[in-house]
Amino acid sequence: GLVMIGSGAATKGRGGSVALTVGSGTSGAGGYLRLEAGRSDDTATGGAVTMESGEGSATTSGSVKIKSANAGTAGASGMLVFSSGTASSGNSGLVMIGSGAATKGRGGSVALTVGSGTSGAGGYLRLEAGRSDDTATGGAVTMESGEGSATTSGSVKIKSANAGTAGASGMLVFSSGTASSGN
Question: Closest Cα partner for 60 from 112, 10, 98, 108?
């Protein structure tokens, strides 16, 4: 049967909030919270999971925040994984990260950054297309600036950061891979 959890609508004022939380403990790992849609054992698609902020019909829509908590005095903050599952037959699922289009105003920016640290090498950022194990071509990587339909298109900048008080600035390598057969 259907299970619905929610607050009622308000004709004048705010709709009630809904909080789904796990209580804190004093020993062992914290309790986990799992949201999982239903499995389908026939040819139909498994259930979908949708997380969507509220519409602001006259102003700004609500934000959606997915983050791991700050680490304590020892340890690291929790890992975040955004991934589609594996596929035994057919394609694995598409992963899309982007901002929506704007009819009046700027499209939202998208920033993919690695946080700074105080010891060891900085965390790395890797963009890699998919490998193909049959006769098809491996996946392509495209970096393209935005079109300026009436003016100038955006720029593309690839640079290493300035060196600190000691050391050299980072190396840039533009290279094609080796070939065991062919060009």
Answer: 108
Q: How confident is the model at residue 91 (pLDDT cuts 50, 70, 90)?
A: confident
Q: Which residues of 165-174 are buried (b: 16+ CB within 10 A; e: fewer)?
A: eeeeeeeeee
The answer for residues whose C-beta is within 8 angstroms of residue 114's C-beta and 6 or more apart is 122, 123, 124, 125
CA distance 74 to 76: 7
Contact between 18 and 7 (Cβ < 8 Å): yes
The CA-based diameter of the chain, rounded to the nearest angstrom, is 72
pLDDT in tens, 145-164: 999 989 999 999 999 999 99
Q: What is the pTM of this model?
A: 0.72
Handedness of CA 65, 158, 115, 84 (dihedral sign): positive
